[in-house]
Amino acid sequence: MSAFSLHSRHVMPHLFGLLVLLIAGAGLRAADSWELQYQHLDKEYDLRLVDVAFVDAKRGLAVGYIDSRTRDRQRPVNLVTTDGTTWRLFEVKKRCDDVFALGSGILFAACEDGIYRSDELGSDWKRVARLKDIESVWFLNERRGFAVGASKGFYETQDGGQRWAPVATKPEISTNPDVTTLRHIHFVGERHGFVTGWSRPPTNRDRIPDWLMPDRAMQQRDTPHVNVFADTSDAGATWRAQEVSMFGEVVTTELGPDHVGMTLVNFSNGFEYPAEVFYFRWPNGEMVRTFREKRRAVTDVAVPERGPVYLAAVEPVGQLYWSPIPGRLRVLRSADFMTWEEMDVDYRASARRASIEAYDPDNVWLVTDTGMILKLKRDGGSLPERSKPTAPPK
Fold this sequence. Notes:
- By secondary structure, this protein is mainly β.
- It has 2 domains: 1-31; 34-377, YVTN repeat-like/Quinoprotein amine dehydrogenase (Methylamine Dehydrogenase, Chain H, 7 Propeller), CATH 2.130.10.10.
- The chain is built from 2 helices and 30 strands.
- The strands form 7 sheets. The protein has a 5-stranded mixed β-sheet.
- Strand 11 and strand 12 (154-157) form a beta hairpin.
- The termini are far apart.
């Protein structure tokens, strides 16, 4: 008997067992995947989807615009689904960049010339406020809502959006309003909420897009500037604010019902990384970095009420993190905020930026600025239990 055959008799059972484990592990990783539900294909026009919201597990609305490749022309559009699977596109009068849905079926949107309301899943929109440069809206119920935007804009309504006024207990923010934007608002439940934004004076690099001068973009380093954090624990009756000098801009903050959440920071093309994600315990826990990779430009995060949390990311093309050329869409998930696994995503999916929306742990969608809508396809098994992080990641 040869040495090889003797060795193989002892090793093969172990190799076979290892192979079974590898196949099983691959099956677990591939069980949940991201399935393409809608793709815009047109030789002349591109579809840019920027946000999506759901009334329930089947009825939802995506907002964006159609952009001509040959002319300086944009046409605002909505896409609607009533079965959670098929989507219908229709044109609307105003471009909107943020949409919020109430369980009752009422939608609110931050649009180019104010705040709009729809009682018919986007088939009709009525302007309810002529507020300029609104970035984000959030409603606690059908009557109580908030809106944030440029020039430190921070507003509230008590009557379902019919009348808006500056927040009576607006937090003190010392930065220059001309260069300060409140970008995002998010609540968990009806009491605990966050507002994030930044103050950044314009620079010479803002005048010429990075993609026109990529070498310059990679050489120019960021300088710290002020990011703004505001929070409430009493449904917006009072707010407290912090101003933090740091690199990058806080794009979004999401909090789960267990009071553990994530904050996403994006950096410029000249920074060492395109993005960093932090987890935090609210209200007293510090933020700890949990994710950053040079080839994963994270554009959004999602913290469902239970189960894994998600990162939507783009794999950069070329030397620039942020480029007009779409990159492969990537989605990562974690059950402990620290250990991240890449999920299977339809091979056709690409984006410059993607937004992720979790109606519940089993119904999670992604929209991209390349005109695609994807949904998390669950294998029907039980969701992994989400655990709070116990130690900082390496």
